[in-house]
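Record 1 of the preview.
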Amino acid sequence: MLHPIGIDIVSVARIERALRRPRFVERVLTARERDHCRTAQQVAGRWAAKEAVCKCLGCVLPMTAIEVTPGPDGAPEVLVEGRSIYQGHRIAVSISHEREFAAAVAVLEREPAAQ
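->
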């Protein structure tokens, strides 16, 4: 079975410029994400992850409806509208950073039916 995926790449310089606008961070990151993001590169990674999640879900959501925070092992964990399961799916995300770019891939995993 093919699982829907989403991918996004963003320029870190673009996010650096956006961070100069006073309300940009509040429109893009949740309070918990702001606790983890200290650099433009980290914010760019979250931006790319949220865009990838929207692409694999096939819908547009406000950026703050999607939360990407480090899990216990450091790998990113995704909550959509406060839930780890969204419309019967868990969402796996991978984020990658390079000096000038941040990229992310999101994959939907259907949760098995309760037995």
